[in-house]
Amino acid sequence: MPDPSENLPPKAARILAAAGELLLARGSKGVTIADVARKGHIGKGTVYLYWKTKEDLLLDLLCRDFLALADEVISAVAANHELIRPSRLCPNLLHVAAAHPYVLAVRSNDAELLGVLTDDARSATLLDALGPDAMVRRILPIWRTYDLARTDWSVADQALAVDSLFSGFMMVTGGCCARQVEDPDRVFAAAFTALLGPERAAPAQVKAAAAEAVRALGEQSAVVRGLLSQPAANTA
User: Fold this and answer.
1) Helix and strand tally (H, E) in the chain?
2) pTM of the full structure
């Protein structure tokens, strides 16, 4: 997983990294600002220069993990347009999401890890903007437009089916059933092709679909960046 404290002033980065280690080890209820300060080897007051509350600090961790997930997907699709195909993007996204613990925690409503953030409206915004399921739902109309998905279903019906299939695979990825299959990705790809139909797009359509998906996910990333606290560089 990319470092969630990247591109921050040094002290803010240390605070965020320390908070991340404590959150994964103890859960939200076991983390205090004093704990974070001690682990980051800074004064407690310094933490409050960057984040007003513990919840704001932990929310930044969540936001940055969602942004890191989106950045990985955007970079991969921009570098290889063929990855936008449902049979390739969906299995890839399953694997990428598995490496983002805060994304998975928000998605599963993990109250032990997240504490009061499970009921925070900002967590719901994260899921709706850049949750792995939300990414697939947002890209579905693009697939339909560029002959990468069948269009004989209504968008709403198709979105429900795709969401159910993707969510189911997220539950079994790495589980015993997946381990019994030599190539789970082949099964994942075949299942999405069976649901969405053959990918008839010409190369130019694939390229256009990839570009549109990159733009769409970039717009959703901007929504999540709007939730971040903005540490003042001159306090570093």
Assistant:
1) 13, 0
2) 0.89
Question: Among 122, 127, 126, which residue's Cα sits nearest to residue 56?
Answer: 122
Identify whether the C-beta of residue 234 lies closer than 8 Å to the C-beta of residue 49.
Answer: no
Q: How many CA atoms lie within 13 A of 128 on its CB side?
A: 6
- Centre a 10 Å sphere on the Cβ of residue 215 and count the other Cβ atoms it contains: 11
C-alpha span between 106 and 168 (Å, rounded): 17
* Helix boundaries (H) for the chain: 10-26, 33-40, 44-50, 54-79, 86-98, 101-107, 111-114, 121-130, 132-145, 155-172, 176-179, 184-196, 203-225
96-124: pLDDT as tens digits: 999 999 999 999 999 999 999 999 999 99
CA-wise closest residue to 219 among 158, 135, 163, 143: 135
Residues 103/135/67/179 CA torsion (nearest 10 deg): 50
pLDDT in tens, 171-201: 876 544 556 667 888 999 999 999 999 999 9
